[in-house]
Design a protein that fits this description.
The structure is a single chain. By secondary structure, the chain is mainly alpha-helical. It folds into two domains: about 20-200, Growth Hormone, Chain: A; about 215-410, Up-down Bundle (Growth Hormone, Chain: A), CATH 1.20.1250. About 80% of the residues lie in helices and about 0% in strands. The chain has helices at about 25-55, 55-85, 85-110, 115-145, 150-180, 180-200, 215-230, 230-250, 255-260, 265-290, 295-310, 320-350, 355-385, 385-410. Helix 1 (about 25-55) packs antiparallel against helix 2, helix 10 runs parallel beside helix 12 (about 320-350) and helix 12 runs antiparallel to helix 13. It starts with about 20 loop residues before the first helix and ends with a helix.
Amino acid sequence: MRAPPDTANGAVSPGARSALAEPLFRRYFLAMCLSNMGTWISRFLLGWTAWDLTHAATWVGITSTLLLLPTFILSPLFGVVSDRVSPRNGMLATLASQGALVALTALTLAGGWFSLGWLLFLALGMGSVTAAHQPLRLALIPRLVERDALPSAIGISAITFNLSRILGPAAAGWLLLHASPATAFACAAALFAGALSALLRVHSIGIAGDAGQGSVLAQLAEGLRFARDHPTIRLILAVTLVNGLLGRTVIELLPALSGKLLDGAATTLALLTACAGAGSVLGGFLLTRHRSDEAALLHMMLYSLLGATLVLLPLHWANGLWAIAGIALLLSMATTMAGAGSQALAQLTVSDQYRGRVLSIWTVFTMGAPAIGSLVMGALADLFGFVAVVTGFATLALLCVGSLWRQRREL
């Protein structure tokens, strides 16, 4: 079994090491690629099916909410579970559940039994399983690689996630064009089955350590206290919050940015989205080259957050499609490096006893900040203009970065 990272003595490697050099991670890598594609194909199909079934934006929004809401409510609870069980075995259960839900959807579509009720059940079911899957996945990664390969593993994970976010919807659209919704869902189920088969080849991953005693809620409270009292974890969560409220929020609002600052055409949005995707992949690649030095990761994380703010400040003077496309690329690269870097630093800092709980809190911050930020920034942009609001957010974020630098010196 792969030894967990040594967090007790603070030992670090002088250089970076590729996670793909680790046999267990190579086996997991295939499962990760297949499950990411299955997830993004399924998400796209759910949104498309909601519109095709109802032709109402309200139901599309409700479907999206049911996919995301369980993460905010259930992820911290499943973080406790991930500290109690083998993360590999837990992921086998979540992958099997995702595959079963998608396969049942394909059957109901093929049989003509699909309805709005089934759509909402599927969205809630997929959202709940995803809420369980994320803390298990985050707890598994450091069990597959040596400490000096952990930034590489997280960078590779970010690359595959962002590539799947681009390729998955494209594949789903192609399947809808050339086949049927039932066939498209069946292909997604096959991807989950392939991921399950690949993960079965990852052996000898037991329970990480002693998760403590008491009820789930008591252990969750213990994990929250640990995160609150640990200065580095507090700093990581603060960076994650600012990063989500600024960079990731702007990326989520690319459709509005395209409409307000450019012509709003589909090709324009496609180019901006592609540039943002390329920036995310580049950011993930740069993280794979980073060594597992906690101080160096902390500097990289803060410099990336600083870069995201500086990229947005001159938005007022950005004229034309290519200037804004360049901003989208650089912003996405900096945001990915800050976000994935914060995950890497959290993984290196936290002990196995609290890993699942702390990383589940990190997940809530990661997903919740852009959700809240998009709502607030979008509403303010309608009132005061997109450029003024983004510049204001970037200025506030710059002040926050200064405060975070001062906190770093106190560690």
